[in-house]
Design goal:
Radius of gyration of chain A: 21 Å
Strand content of chain A: 15-25%
CATH topology of the largest domain in chain A: Aspartate Aminotransferase, domain 2
Strand order of the largest sheet of chain A: 2-9-8-7-6-3-4-5
Distance between the termini of chain A: 52 Å
Helix content of chain A: 40-55%
CATH architecture of the largest domain in chain A: 3-Layer(aba) Sandwich
Largest sheet of chain A: 8 strands, mixed
Number of helices of chain A: 14
Oligomer: homodimer
CATH class of the largest domain in chain A: Alpha Beta
Number of domains of chain A: 2
Structural class of chain A: alpha/beta
Largest interface: A-B, 86 and 86 residues
CATH superfamily of the largest domain in chain A: Type I PLP-dependent aspartate aminotransferase-like (Major domain)
Order of helices and strands of chain A: HHEHHHEHEHEEHEHEEEHHHEEHEEEH
Number of strands of chain A: 14
């Protein structure tokens, strides 16, 4: 049979990151291309203890169907936690537990958009979300990312020029891939623009707890008294990514429709994973765990920046110094063929980085690549950046 | 903010089953309305043992991101298992692990359909799948279910009358809710019609292993040498529903696009749950476990049928005797107001069944309701059917 595909999927290819991850698995290749949390960041013993206890004491709760909206104690706890710690959420909001934060993006898009509707995205942005929107046949309009976040004038133009914009998608903290954090001033402006143009904001905040320098900037959701903002959080970076647990905090009528959409996707998120998250947040010292994570990532980020300064900056490559998160965004000198550089780096010099084009919204950012410091060991970072520097010095000649 | 919803979600309400489940949770109500596996069917000790071992020996594999296509050992094992045990799948097919079989339906629909395209469904059918298709803005066309499965003449008419049919959705074994099994003759005919009209078949088989009477009928997928059939399997009924692990077996090019779609939904299925399924299938006696399940459900089904014969049949209610699965489909005498009967049953007589209209494709089947024998205890079944019979005798007078 000759298969024909939907408009959304027809032209969609597997994530370039995941394709490069295949090269990254070749023996001898140093992968600076991943986006996995550091293995040492997983509280493995605590999770083993929690799991053993749950399966001994409440096996049927773990193994039976659960509610689509999520494990109620986890929903309740998150609601209080977000409100008390971050002033995020009010009485008009509710929590939906999702199968990773990725599902929040897909559910919002499915719930409020028809094929052909427009989503305004930062460009570059997280490819997983972009492809999620694309898979539903949505049109993406990119707004450039500056050192203090989204270019808000370009955002206003995009809102003016496009009639059927449904929401603005942003990762305000330690953006993936650009590593930048949106200023409070810009957050206010984005909120005001969304209000003026009657569009939603999807605020994706997987990295917010991983700040190792500078001061926290309040979430856009803290400004939200109109139910404009869908806030997406995740356990992937602060507990364990393989659990696939995330959550949405959103206005109740919107969340109610997202629950119906989720019912048709996976009925509910794995009970065990939800219960592990709840037990870890409530029976362990979650704040101490976050402190430990920040120390781990601070050390790794500083090492990576030192290595970039030593090996790449002298070749003419520049980069943005992140204050948290997992990624550093590097810029090649003008005139360098980025795709050729990244391909030769992995194939000939056995060091994998992610080509900036993977994060494109509409075909821009061709002088950039992303490196990651959370997954590789310190030794691998040293070797990888050294290889990349030596290759760059030779290649740019 | 006044929310506006997509065409697919706008008119979609939460599953009536799940709404009735709320009543079913009221103290004193006997719930014959659920669809949960019997708690005694879960191999809780084995899962606890597996989980402890995995978290002690391979914690990072459990907790780190995995591949979108699924945990490779589970994919490999399922491929061999399906082929050797059921002659299902060939060299052109591949396996995708999903977050429950529900996700298979959603991914196929998203991958091959645009909003407005037609899906032909058995009517009645599983509301979760119907709503999944509806959430994507698809048009559902219903084909009646007979005692030996889908009415194939009506199917042919539906294929003739609708131009943009993309697939036929069927649950051939112990259909939910009708409890019927499609004959081999009809399976061949459905396959030939799909081939003639160049549409896919989505064969949803969550209950196939739960046969306690009669002879197995080969899957439609066994006939498939053209890549027409997407076969969906699940661990929900044979291991544990809260794990949320299912799988699709489909032609490679189609599966490749479904993987891209899944990447944008939840990245991958919870690692722990996939690994538990794999360990249980390979390190334990899975066939002995299935035998045990069949014995459990056989006993419960026989009891339920005896109770129906004793308390409901004398009132004029009829039902289809299933040979497996979890459900029995009952028909009220002509002239009885089904919705009123089901509502009064739960509100006044404290016994919950699912109104047949919940499984409607287009508004038919208004004289029916579904009962379940897997979730309630034997004692609850005795009490529930007795109450229902007493109420029916009085109500039909």
């Amino acid at each position: 049979m000759e298969y024909t595909f939907s408009n959304g999927l027809r032209n969609l290819q597997p994530s370039a990151i995941r394709e490069i991850l295949k090269y990254a698995g070749v023996p001898g290749v140093v992968a600076l291309s991943a986006g996995n949390p550091a293995p040492e960041a997983f509280p493995t013993e605590a999770i083993a203890e929690i799991s053993a206890r749950l399966l001994a004491e409440r096996p049927i709760d773990v193994l039976q169907y659960g509610a689509t909206e999520g494990y109620q104690p986890l929903r309740d706890h998150l609601k209080t936690y977000l409100r008390e710690k971050y002033a995020v959420g009010n009485d008009n909001d509710e929590i939906l537990i999702t199968s990773g934060a990725q599902q929040v993006m897909e559910l919002v898009a499915k719930t409020v958009c028809n094929a052909g509707d427009v989503v305004i995205c930062e460009s570059p942005s997280f490819i997983g979300s972009l492809n999620s929107f694309r898979s539903l046949g949505l049109k993406l309009v990119g707004v450039p990312v500056e050192a203090d976040g989204m270019d808000v004038d370009a955002l206003e133009c995009a809102l003016k020029e496009n009639t059927n914009v449904r929401f603005i998608y942003t990762i305000p903290n330690f953006q993936n891939p650009a590593g930048v954090t949106m200023s409070m001033e810009k957050r206010r402006r984005v909120y005001e623009l969304a209000k003026a143009y009657n569009v939603l904001i999807v605020e994706d905040n997987p990295y917010g707890d991983l700040r190792f320098a500078g001061e926290d900037v309040p979430a856009i959701k803290t400004l939200d008294d109109e139910g404009l903002v869908v806030y997406a959080g995740s356990f992937s970076k602060v507990l364990a990514s393989g659990l696939r647990v995330g959550y949405a905090l959103a206005g109740k009528p919107l969340l109610a429709k997202m629950i119906v959409a989720k019912q048709g996707e996976d009925v509910h998120t794995t009970q065990w994973a939800q219960m592990v998250c709840h037990e870890f947040m409530t029976k362990y010292d979650f704040e101490a765990h976050l402190d430990r994570l920040r120390a781990v990532y601070n050390e790794k980020a500083q090492l990576m920046m030192d290595l970039l300064d030593e090996h790449l900056v002298p070749t003419g490559i520049t980069y943005h110094r992140p204050e948290g998160g997992l990624f550093i965004w590097c810029r090649l000198p003008d005139g360098v063929d980025m795709a050729d550089f990244c391909t030769k780096a992995v194939k000939e010099h056995k060091v994998a980085v992610v080509p900036g084009s993977a994060f494109n919204v509409e075909g821009e950012h061709l002088q950039t690549f992303r490196v990651n410091y959370s997954t590789p060991t310190n030794e691998a970072m040293r070797e990888g950046v050294k290889r990349l520097g030596a290759f760059a010095a030779e290649y740019f000649k």
